[in-house]
Amino acid sequence: MKYVPPHTIVLKSNGMAESFVRTFKRDYVYMHDLPDAKTVMELLPLWFEDYNINHPHKGLRMRSPREYRMMQNKLEGCPV
């Protein structure tokens, strides 16, 4: 087992969170007219669904998380 200092984990996860927020704002928030918080709250579930089902992710080789998960599941079931 290799020791990983806690601050290393925090820095990586913080960077991932910042990347997500930046992408989410760029691809969803800034593309809509949002007159009030109620509108944002109504749209959030739709945006999250699109982000996970349709939105290509560079870190997943331009696949959506759903596509990537399906591919991983197929590979795990393959005996070769």
Topology:
Layout: H1 6-27, H2 37-53, H3 65-77
Keywords summarizing the entry:
single chain; 3 helices; mainly alpha; flat; 80 residues
Notes on the protein architecture:
The chain is mainly alpha-helical. The chain has one domain (6-77). The chain has helices at 6-27, 37-53, 65-77. The relative contact order is 0.07.
What's the total count of β strands?
0
Main beta sheet = none
| Beta-strand content | under 5%
Q: How far apart, in Å, are the first and last alpha carbons?
A: 29 Å
Overall pLDDT, averaged?
85
Summarize the structure in short:
It is built from three helices and no strands. It is mainly α and 80 residues long.
